[in-house]
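Example record used in the benchmark description.
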Amino acid sequence: MAKKNLEKEIGWLLKEKYNNKPTKQFYSDVKRLEKGEPLDYVIGFTEFLGCKIDLSKRPLIPRPETEFWVEKAIEEMKNRKPFGAAQGKILHILDMFAGSGCIGIAILKHIKNSQVVFSDINKDNLKQIEINCKLNSINEKRYKIIESDVFKNIKGDYDYIFANPPYIADYRRSPSASLRAILRNRIQKSVLKYEPKQALFGGKDGFLYLRQFLKKAKNYLNKQGTIYMEFDSPQKKGIEKITKESGYQSCEFYKDQYGKWRYVMIK
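Model output (structure tokens):
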């Protein structure tokens, strides 16, 4: 880590976790940063669309790219007619591959007439979601948490399905990769070392979970429902092909704040 970046992170750590009052624990945390551990894990939480997201169970750290498109989706949900939050009906939402629960929690906070089912295969993530729902004062009647491998234990139909599946191709974790394109897209060492690989990698080509999800999701979507899904830019054409073969009506692709294809809206 560059010296300037490290100094910035130490400053944020001191402010956010220690209220500018260094303790013995603070200096231990500085050593964690020096070894490359992500700042959000060291602080213990992060912010996501005005929600405090605890990271004590060490789920995947919510990304700015994800925050960007979820905010866009919430805007669409509020304004959509005649099938949106503004119409007053209860919106039934599925947050699959939920991780920390940041997506579903942001929706619950910003869409008052929403109910969310959180789904994840990792038991620690399920505990993390419960922690974060309570941390953000979400009424327990508005959400349900389900342990599920993709759609294995999911029932019912949903107005919106959100998914941020593991989509990184396995080759990008290889330390011996030599091709320029691979080197350019190599995952940061700190991510590989500290963040859960189960939440990052989606098989040889990155499509393992994307494919499973897209082929089954339409069976859980209301006729006027919408799917929002995050993906890696090179996967755009593959997703177009899968959605067409799976019988969806339409799919629209959007770029993130960095100009990269990042999420798709499917109907």
